[in-house]
Amino acid sequence: MTAGAGARPTRGFLLELKRRVGFIEEGYRLLEMKRDELAKELRADLEELSSRRMGFEEKVEEALKTVAAMYATLGYREASSWRNPEKGLELEVLPKSVMGIPVPYVKVLHIPEVKDKFNPIVRAAAQKVHSILGDLISVAELEARIERVAEDLEKTNRQVNALEKIIIPGYKRTIKYIEDVLEEAMLEEFTRTKFVKALLSRRKA
Fold first, then answer.
1. Measured between alpha carbons, how far is residue 17 from residues 12, 29, 178 in Å?
2. DSSP 118
3. Looking at the 3D structure of the chain, how many domains does it have?
4. Pair 57, 136: CB distance under 8 Å
5. Are 138 and 2 in contact (CB under 8 A)?
């Protein structure tokens, strides 16, 4: 709010502005608390992601190499012919709330079994992939959660900065402007009253 823009220099309006600023400052404090909690949550999630990834990326790379070796050994057509005829991997993505932020939660409905009747090369590749599925889903969940928390933190930080640097100072400048106008008017009224009293006093004399 620009000082003086749309401001009515009255005591009633001044009180209304001060009340409004009180509400805004309370909202600002709550947003600051939310921002700090989000930052704390994001740091914890990033540390957890780093911990989960330790050794996991090597497992993924090893599984991919095993699958690539399977295709190289058997050829695409034969390797593909060993697909499980039963239903494949089934997942359900559900919403979950973290500090009021909707984040995806992955529910595993069905994981295909690695059957002994498979070609040994195919079975080895399938077992490698099977062994990392749980960690893969868990890491993907955490990465999505980090992304959502980071987005909300950025939005909250923008709101805090706008209140701190633009909105609250603008209101306070307007309040100062009205206070100055009222003080000046009161001083003028006092001077005028004093002059009238002095004039009446001289006339009586």
1. 9, 18, 10
2. S
3. 1
4. no
5. no
d(CA 91, CA 137): 10
What is the chain's length?
A: 205
pLDDT, tens digit, 9 for 90 and up, residues 79-121:
887 776 567 788 899 998 988 899 998 888 888 777 777 788 8
Are 63 and 132 a contacting pair, CB within 8 Å? Answer: yes
Q: Over 42-110, what HEC string results?
A: HHHHHHHHHHHHCCHHHHHHHHHHHHHHHHHHHCHHHHHHCCCCCCCCEEEEEEEEECCEEEEEEEEEE
Q: Are 37 and 152 in contact (CB under 8 A)?
A: no
Structural contact between residues 49 and 139, judged by C-beta atoms closer than 8 angstroms: yes
* Residue 141 maps to a domain: yes
Amino acid at 35: R
In the structure encoding, which two tokens stand for residue 113, read together?
């079994």
| pLDDT tens-digit map of 40-72 | 999 999 999 999 888 888 889 999 999 999 999
Indicate whether 203 belongs to any domain: no
Contacts of 143 (CB under 8 A, 6+ apart): 49
Q: Residue 149: which of 50, 63, 10, 46 has the closest Cα?
A: 46
CATH number for the domain including 82?
A: 1.10.287.3240
pTM comes to: 0.75
Judge whether 118 and 82 are in contact, CB under 8 Å. yes
Q: What is the span of the domain harbouring residue 133?
A: 11-198
Nearest in space to 148 (alpha carbons), one of 41, 56, 50:
41
Placement of tokens 């012919």 in the chain: 81
